[in-house]
Structures are given as structure tokens and as C-alpha cells.
Amino acid sequence: MSSLRTSIRHKTAAADRVSLREKIGLGLGRIAGDGTNGTIHVLLSPIYNMTLGMNPALISTAVSIQRIWDAVTDPLVGQYSDNFRSRWGRRRPLIAAAALPTALCFAALWWVPSGVGDWGMFAFMMALFLMFHLAHTFYVMPLTGLVIEVTDDYHERTRIAAVLLVFTYVFQVSSQWMFPLTQLSIFPDTLTGLRWVTGICAVFFCVIGLVPAILCRERNYKRVAATQSKIKLRDGFRAVLANPPFMRLIVARVVFGFGYGIVGMLGIYMNTYYVFGGDIKAGGWFYGYLGTAYMVAAIFCSVFVYPWLSRRLGKRHTLQLATVILMAGCIAKLFIYHPGMPWLQLVVLLTNGAAGSGIGLMSSAMLGDIADYEEWKTGVRNEAFLASIMNWFDKIGGSLSTLLGGFVLVWIGFDAKLGAQSEHTLMLMKFSYFVMPFLGALTTFVVMRRYELDEARVYEIKAELARRRVLTTRLEPGVIPSVISSDVD
Q1: Per-residue confidence at 423, pLDDT binned at 50, 70, 90?
Q2: Which domains are present in the chain?
Q3: pLDDT tens digit string along 9-39?
Q4: Are the C-beta atoms of residues 63 and 407 closer than 8 Å to each other?
Q5: How far, in Å, are 126, 282, 397, 453, 460 from residue 486 at the CA level?
Q6: Does the pTM exceed 0.90?
Q7: Cβ neighbours around 56 below 10 Å, total
Q8: For 470, what's the count of Cα atoms within 13 Å in the CB-facing half-sphere?
Q9: What whole-number distance in Å separates Cα of residue 265 and Cα of residue 327?
Q10: Percent over 70 (pLDDT), the chain
Q11: Interaxial angle between packed helices 346-378 and 315-336, expressed in degrees from 0 to 180 and rounded to the nearest 10
Q12: pLDDT band for position 204 (50/70/90)?
């Protein structure tokens, strides 16, 4: 049966294709959601640590607390979105309401009061983080639910995930230049430049953040969600624990994210202090080129490589291939970093971009398949809750890795006030930058070996759900057939 399934290749029906209008809406929404959060993390260390001199352990502590905060609010907001009912649907009103607060909090984070010291900056950062990420969660969780339900075709989900990644990466090419732009001579100092740059970005984020609520439709609202009973939080958690493919994907993402996140901030430090000897301005400009290379590799692979591989190898094998690429890039870190030879870093950034886009693309595409599997098992649609749980685990792993990441800098003896760092510190920095992402990618490869939702299985579940929905229309509204057809087993 397994060999039969892997030999089947399905074509996407016209009814399952997503229109250009909706793709644009979802893509701009993804820029607003990922762009605000991503730009914050691109600027955080260069501004708060390198420019203002804040202790990196305090920065990583604030980020880890913020991620724990996210981990608490994500499931609550995800469940709220799944249960929300209105004449405009359960996603679009929440997206429209959250766009402005998200943009305003993003802009406010960079108006740091002067002369408040490390703990004053920590308190300011913490307060803005909590406000921003609450608004951000009310934007992103409904948007993610909207993305998952936009199609129920195995291959169209991969195409949609690719389109959204391209939108995200195209903007992130620009975000890599945010810090260099603050150094332009037209600004009297870095903070003035920062506030102009981020203020313009905030207006942009607010405008495009409204687009999904205008251009997109909710495919499953009338046909499933509007008539189903509201889902209790404890029942949602129980269903998640009884969902093997979802749990495997979660474990894989957590270990991958932890391995990468614990030393993720070291990329800019390796460039600035290992290659450029502590020259922040020169290193900052060159890191813009490196970030652009990362995004170009990610965009190219998202458009041309991974969708092609996924159609031939399946999503699981394609994700595993991406982890192999990351492991190769990690090994390269041990050999290609040399003071005064910045262009060699492109090897690492290109492999990171190729690997990161593959893991992100396949994970996003798998989530729609998992939502169908969940409906097949339980009879309810809870796309935003599933997305929130995946984010919950991502952020728990991310908060722990970020917390430890700041202390890694302290442990290896890094001190921003010194400028150029000692040989011992630089060697420990290089080794740390290699080992943890390598182990995380290796573990992800192993965990995903038993992921069971291949192409044939997903199409079997889709056919059963279609049959069940036809049957449901002949019953009372909200009644779900309790017997699952044996031909899907």
C-alpha cells in the first residue's frame, strides 16, 4: 500500500486553485505580520547592544520573556479566532482590527528614553514587547488560519506557502538594510535615522496589513465553521496530543529552532567582530549584503527548487533534504570565516537561506494537511488553533534558545565596549556558531522519518471529508457524522 501511494501523482483541480487576488492579499498580510516582527529582531542587537551598550544577557532575557508571553497568548487568540462568529467571518474582522495597533507598537519600540541605563532600557523594551506581541498575535493567528483554509489541495498548499515565503523574503531583503540606512549621513545620529526609517515602515505595515481583510475570503466559514459548535480549549489540547503527524512536526521544528536560535544572533557578531575586527559601520553595511544573499537564495529555492522537489519527493523528504543542506553549511562555518575575507561568508548565508526556506515552506504546507487530518478525526475545523500551538512550541523553544544565546555571548567573554575581541572569544564564537545548528538539523532529519501524511494519504482524507460534508448537508446544522469511512484507514 505504501509503494502504491508514493507512485500516485494528483493534479490540482481548478476549484482548488487560489486566485491571484487572494495570493496578493495573503502575501501582503504576511509581509505585515512577519515584517514587523522580523525587522524588530534584525535591529534589536545593533541598536540596543551595539549602539546603546545594553547588556546582551538583558536583551536575550527580554526576548525570551516576550516569547513566553507569545506562547501564552497564541493558543488563546487562536482558539478565539476559530470560535469567533460575525457577518464578515471569523478571521477578517480580527485582522482589520489588529493592523493599526501592531504598526504603532512597532514604531514606539525605537523611541528609547535617554539616560535610563540598562535596567531602564530593559523595562522600556519589556513593556513595548508585551504590547506589540499581543496586537501582533491578534493579527497573525487569524491570518494564519485564513492561509490554511484557502485551499484543501495537497500541491496547491505548497504553492501558496511558496508565494507567501517569497513575499516575506522580498521584504526581508529590505529589512537587512534597515540598520545600514540608519547610518546615512543625512541623519545626525543613529537614533534619529532609526526613528525615521522605522516610522516610514510602520505606515507601510499598517496600510498593507488591512489588505487581507479586503481581498480574501474565508473558504471554510459557511461550509463548516459557521455551523460547528465552539471548541473548548481543553478539547483542542487533547486533540493536538492525539494527532501524531502534528506532534512529529512540532518536535522537529522545536529542536531545529532551538539549535538555530541559541546561536542565531552570532551571525552578525561573527561578521562584525571576527571578520571586520569590531568595525560596526563596515560590518553593518556588509551584513546587509549577506542578508540579501540569504534572501535571494531563499526566494530562488522557494520558487524554483522546493515546489519541484516536493512534487517528486513529497513534503517529508523535501524537508529532510533542507536539513542536510543546513548541516553542510554548518560544517562550512569551521573553514570559511577569516579576518579580512568577508565574501567567503556567502557560502554560509546561501546554504542557510536555502535550508531555512525549505524547512519553513514544507512546514507551512504540511499544516494544511494536518488540519484536514484533524477534521477527519474530530469533525471540527480549528486551523488557527493548530497554527497557534505550533507557534507556541516554536516560541517556547525560541525563548529558551534566545535566553541562553545572550548568556553564550557572556560565557565566551564578549564585551561590546572592547571593540575588537580576544582570540579566545572569537574561537569559542565560531565553534558555538557551528555545533548547535548542526545538532538541531540532524535531530530534525531523524524525527521526520516517521511523518505519515504523504500525498496519497492526504488525498484520501480530502475525498472522505468531501463525502462527509455532502452527508452533513442532509442532517441538522452542526451535526457531524460520527462514523469514519473504512476506506480511509
Answers
A1: confident
A2: 18-474 (1.20.1250.20)
A3: 678 887 778 888 999 999 999 999 888 888 8
A4: no
A5: 53, 64, 38, 17, 11
A6: no
A7: 22
A8: 5
A9: 18
A10: 90
A11: 160
A12: very high
